[in-house]
Amino acid sequence: MPVLTTRPPWRETFASLRVPNYRRFAASNLVANTAVWMQRIAMDWLVLQLSGSVAAVGVTVFMQFTPMLLFGLWGGVITDRYSKQRLLVITQSCAAALAALLAVLTLSGEVQVWHVYAISFVLGLVTVVDNPARQVFVNELVGPRYLRNAISLNSSIFQLGGLIGPAVGGILITAVGGGWSFAINAVACLAVVFAVATLKRSELHASPAAPRGKGQLAEGMRYVRRKPVIFWTVVMVAVIAVFAFNMPVFLAAYANNVYHVGAQGYGMFNALVAAGALAGALASTRRTSVRLSMVVGTAAALGVVQALAGFAPGELAFGLLLVAVGVGNLLFITAANSLVQMSSNVQIRGRVISLYILVLLGGQAIGGPLMGWIVEQVGPHIAMAISGLVPAAAAAVIAVLIARQASLRLRFGLRGRRPVIAIVNRAGKTGQTL
């Protein structure tokens, strides 16, 4: 799907920040995402310390993402019906309260594993509405002109927080304990509430609210099924989410059982992934187009790199491959997110995005305990390799299915002295040259 006719100059990398409302939203998001990453690291390490089990970390992931599996589609319906600005104020206020509760339990020494599980589940309920509302609200902040750029910048902000948060979180855990990470996140959530509540409503590109009616969930699912570009993207996201997007489980095992580097090392591993992801997110702002072939191809590349990380010969090689995993992770997710959002009608976008988030986060709910169990059965090295090889194989199968559905085939030839590989239909018409 063409988005730009020419590659944008580097000065346009942050074009969406010209919008005052988006600048305010982005600044609060940077603070909040840094604090959220600190909280995630602290929660994972807290569960590992309390239980002594990597599988228990996977259960924490499962508890946080299970609500999306159960109620995710309803989050899209709510997003389409109500003010996204108001919804974000409510959800971030709830997230602040949950972080504050976890901070009190941890700092008082009363915290138990089931407390973390329960708070993770309630936080997952908040995410059911918060995630689709946040995704769709970007369009209201910047309008269609800057939407693609804003999506990429949102990913950059998320990963910049992921670069800073784990490193700071690891230091905090070692120095004063993880409870302060939860307290900091509570304050950061309140900062988001203030920023969103004070946006200038007159400058928002408000989308029309969907009227109440029967069959709205089914309507959203039928819409996705009728659009192959969205349908195959969602399928690819589902596979990646189950197998590849469970890095906390793998990195906790590597930090605790393989390299014995403790909480600081765990935070540093997460920071390396985030550093690569930040580079990938910034690179995604330079794309001139977003196509289904890009989504599938990037998924295959991510799978191969993650499989190689499982066979890394040492800590240095493992760290370098984690950076590459981060790059592939964000190139894939920004391509998938952009393609789904920009290919869907604005009045049904909330439901489409909720289905997308359902498979993204719901897949991690399934994959967390699954990959935790695999780690404990066969070890972190083979488990990491499996987490990459399965998505790579799935990408190859999906590519073949798409090619058959569209009657495409590869043609090899020469253009002058240069070899050329082209994707053509059965009539011989060139679709894309590689």
TrEMBL record:
Pfam families with a match to the protein in the record: MFS_3
Transmembrane residue ranges: 53-75, 87-107, 113-129, 150-173, 179-199, 229-254, 266-285, 292-312, 318-340, 352-375, 381-403
Residue ranges occupied by any Major facilitator superfamily (MFS) profile domain in the UniProt entry: 1-406
Keyword Transmembrane listed: yes
Superkingdom of origin: Bacteria
An annotated Gene Ontology molecular function: transmembrane transporter activity
UniProt keyword terms in alphabetical order: Cell membrane, Membrane, Transmembrane, Transmembrane helix, Transport
Membrane topology: Multi-pass membrane protein
The keyword Transmembrane helix is annotated on this UniProt entry: yes
Localization terms from the record: Cell membrane
One Gene Ontology CC term in the entry: plasma membrane
PANTHER family per record: INTEGRAL MEMBRANE EFFLUX PROTEIN-RELATED, STAPHYLOFERRIN A TRANSPORTER
Name of the molecule in the record: MFS family permease
Organism this protein belongs to: Leifsonia soli
